[in-house]
Amino acid sequence: MALSIFSPLTIRGMTLKNRLVVSPMQQYLTPDGLVGTWHMVHLGSRAVGGAGLIITECSAVSPEGRNTLFDTGLWNDEQVAAWQPIVQFVQEQGAKIAIQLWHAGGKGSHRHPQEGMTYLPPTEGGWLPKGPSPTALGNGLAAEALTLAEMETIKANFVAATQRAVQAGFDSIELHAAHGYVFHQFYSGLTNHRTDQYGGSFENRIRLLVETVQAMRQVMPEAMPLLARLSVVDYSDDPRAWQLADGVRLSAILKVHGVDVVTASGGGFVTVDPATVFPSYQVPMAEKIKTETGVITGAVGMINEAQQANAIIASGQADLVLMARELLRDPYFPLRASRELHLTAEVPQPYKRAF
């Protein structure tokens, strides 16, 4: 029987009822990192709408790991308690839920997007962002270089957040290692100019990410999947830039160390030429990673139509389809897609009269 977006998929001990995934989407509505009723409705409606897996917006592992003061977090027990009812509601709808953990590194401490996302200095409640090297990362400020001791703290924060994610009841964890944030800052030669064991060679530049994955897996239940979002290309002609071959190589290494799913995204440091952005433009990258490494892959990037999403799965280009903006427009896209494709999706009892 041919695969479709409504075919189930088992990853370790987690079985998804379908392969439609809600991609992480920042809401910028959480003072003190605490989720609330908005997130219950935002994530819960997409669970009611039929998605197989919901990935939360990226949640910081420490206060200084945020991009803005309004990002969600998982660095204290109050945040665990805030997430628990949302996790429970999503699961009651038959969906699975993963939390995306992140650290913004040198791209941290910005004002709210409505205020222009400019740098927020310590005098106004911000902090001095730190990355692998003193390199400007889009906020007009050259971030300071992290010390080895500070890098150990970051790894410990990811471990602690992992333990809290388990406590909150999440089905899975996604590690955000893309889009110009701290792990991408380390593995890309555009931003990592270190000369110690975390800079220079490919092996050194991926070291922080690999060590963090190893540490997280040690405290995760064996049956709990670990996902990773990577920028598998930098979209830059600079000879120091990260290339697809590097992304494939890193994906294979992460698979060995316990990463179960790689979502192939790109960019984070340069403005992408709009001419190169079109429906499914990043899908070939997911296909190459899947073909060359055998890791379960997620495809993302301008996937908006039912036939388009289904073709990605049916053709074997990827194992999961992640959607963002279309699911902002229509939380019930999976139910609509099942009708368009003449495939079966479970409709919640109160909504069946509409289908």
UniProtKB/TrEMBL annotation:
Membrane-spanning intervals of the chain: none
Domain NADH:flavin oxidoreductase/NADH oxidase N-terminal: 5-342
InterPro entries, per database record: Aldolase_TIM (IPR013785), OxRdtase_FMN_N (IPR001155), YqjM-like (IPR044152)
Pfam family, one: Oxidored_FMN
Protein name: NADH:flavin oxidoreductase/NADH oxidase
Native organism: Hymenobacter tibetensis
